[in-house]
Design brief:
single chain, alpha+beta, Jelly Rolls, 2 domains, five-stranded antiparallel beta sheet, elongated
């Protein structure tokens, strides 16, 4: 019932104040849109009940804790589809392509084509590989192989696996034998013939 919480500002026609409680409050004077055509403006607020607000804050705190734990475990990471991270990791590809979903970039390949990154291991041999996917894509055949320094370490089939509009991560064990006595490795993603890798949105080497 936002409309019931609007109070007219004397002497300023069509200007109002919003009396509801606001977190991180700003000057909440509302004014006609035509007056601010050349200014920065806010069009929307997130409106929650008290119960929903507490749940929302708790979820944000949980997500931030998980993000910090992930960063602490991360030895190296690449954002596929972004020029500088891919250049920094000496990307190689014979025929791949990029795009984005919800402003997150990805790289993909089809029909036996590949892309790869040179990634740092920190001299560790007990690492996992984490990949980030987008959940919806049941009309595609997501089948590919993961090679580390030309050694096949995992064959992946994600076809129809998630069926949900959100990002998903999968973590794959890396045999210590392919990491032994190395400070960097080339991680290569190769689409199966007639198939598609299925859009990789993030690549991380994680300490176990």
């Amino acid at each position: 019932s936002i409309a019931t919480q609007l109070t007219p500002i004397p002497g300023k026609p069509l200007h109002f104040r919003l009396s509801t409680r606001m977190e991180n409050a700003i000057d909440n004077e509302l004014q006609p849109f035509f007056e601010i055509h050349d200014s920065r403006y806010m069009m929307y607020w997130l409106a929650l009940t008290e119960k929903n607000y507490k749940e929302y804050i708790a979820q944000l705190a949980k997500e931030e804790e998980e993000r910090q734990l992930l960063e602490a475990r991360t030895i190296d990471k690449v954002q596929p589809g972004e020029q500088q991270p891919e250049t920094d990791h000496k990307m190689e590809t014979d025929n791949s392509f990029t795009g984005n979903t919800n402003d997150v970039f990805y790289r993909d390949a089809r029909d036996g084509h590949y892309f790869s990154y040179l990634m740092q291991t920190g001299g560790k041999t007990d690492l996992d590989l984490q990949l980030k996917y987008w959940g919806v894509g049941e009309w595609k055949t997501h089948e590919f192989d993961i090679f580390i320094d030309d050694v096949l370490v995992k064959s992946v089939n994600n076809t129809g696996k998630y069926r949900i509009s959100e990002f998903k991560t999968e973590t794959y064990d890396i045999p210590s034998s392919v990491l032994k006595d190395k400070t960097q490795v080339r991680i290569k993603f190769v689409a199966r013939q007639g198939k598609q890798i299925g859009e990789i949105y993030g690549v991380r080497l994680l300490d176990k």
